[in-house]
């Protein structure tokens, strides 16, 4: 791995004055007497934080944008819970130029004031919910996160996720809102405009934004959607100039009732519409090709290198490496 540069910067955002905060008595330093403080004034809102990794000899002509899912940040692409090399490091070792972002109202992008900017309260997800929502185990089998052996026994048979380290994974979960799609997508569009021609690898909620961006933004060369939780309402009237799409789905979905079965069905119907328009679409259900045990957190599962190999092979077929 030979990097030419690592840049960290913010994209988007606009100046806005807020005047509805109540004054408060606050001590701003240890052992300092409280003083009257006002939070009214100018704020910059709507930005996302970006880290840009530039190899000395990039594998492709365009960078790969990594967009995370709901309740997560760009940290999900780094080392997984329990240790080992994550996809970010692996991609850099393969000389892929990578741009990782924290979406609007997540991580280093900062949270806008509530309720001054976002009227609804943020959503917090306990591990009890994550256990079932991310397909680690059945809804009523969550045993708590204290006993690693019990977590493994109660999880889905053959689970690839390092469930013994569920509490470590819980450190990544952050508050989120369910009403910020418009602001998030606007910031992602600003990122695409700054980046120019690019590829997008997106997970869950990020997958929805990537699919939408492929319809509205020129210069997107490829879209890899890992279990997108949503799809655009309608595809375009023509498939011209729309990037090739790769959809990847894990295990514990087929034959089971629940939100992921319905989300997969909606994504399948959307993919079929794209295909009819002439868009090149590749759809992979991992169990159908003999790869089992994958959770919703594909980039953290123990077979993550195998999964990244599949993605890289697909990209190589569509974007001839230059090095």
Automatic annotation (TrEMBL):
Coiled coil: none annotated. It comes from the Bacteria. Gene3D superfamilies: alpha/beta hydrolase. InterPro entries: AB_hydrolase_fold (IPR029058), Carboxylesterase_BioH (IPR050228). This is Alpha/beta hydrolase family protein. The lineage of its organism: Bacteria, Pseudomonadati, Pseudomonadota, Betaproteobacteria, Burkholderiales.
């Amino acid at each position: 791995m030979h990097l030419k540069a690592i840049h960290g910067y913010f994209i988007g955002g606009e100046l806005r004055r807020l005047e509805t905060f109540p004054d408060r008595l606050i001590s701003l330093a240890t052992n300092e007497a409280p003083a009257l403080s006002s939070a009214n004034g100018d704020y910059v809102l709507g930005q996302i934080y970006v880290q840009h990794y530039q190899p000395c000899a990039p594998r492709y002509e365009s960078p790969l944008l990594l967009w995370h899912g709901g309740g997560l940040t760009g940290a999900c692409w780094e080392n997984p819970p329990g240790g080992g090399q994550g996809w970010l490091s692996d991609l850099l070792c393969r000389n892929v130029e990578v741009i990782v972002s924290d979406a609007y109202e997540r991580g280093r992008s900062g949270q806008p004031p509530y309720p001054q900017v976002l009227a609804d309260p943020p959503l917090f997800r306990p591990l009890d919910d994550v256990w079932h929502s991310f397909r680690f185990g059945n809804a009523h089998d969550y045993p708590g996160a204290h006993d690693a052996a019990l977590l493994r026994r109660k999880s889905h048979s053959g689970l690839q996720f390092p469930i013994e380290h569920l509490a470590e994974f819980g450190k990544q979960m952050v508050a989120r809102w369910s009403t910020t799609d418009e602001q998030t997508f606007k910031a992602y569009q600003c990122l695409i405009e700054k980046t120019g021609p690019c590829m997008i690898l997106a997970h869950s909620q990020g997958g929805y934004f990537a699919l939408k961006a492929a319809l509205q933004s020129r210069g997107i060369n490829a879209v890899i959607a890992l279990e997108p939780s949503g799809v655009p309402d309608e595809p375009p009237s023509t498939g011209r100039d729309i990037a090739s799409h790769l959809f990847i789905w894990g295990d514990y979905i087929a034959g089971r009732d629940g939100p992921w079965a319905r989300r997969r069905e909606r994504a399948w119907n959307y993919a079929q519409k794209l295909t009819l328009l002439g868009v090149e679409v590749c759809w992979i259900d991992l169990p159908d090709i003999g790869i089992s045990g994958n959770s919703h957190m594909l980039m953290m599962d123990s077979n993550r290198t195998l999964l990244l190999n599949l993605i890289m092979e697909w990209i190589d077929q569509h974007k001839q490496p230059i090095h």
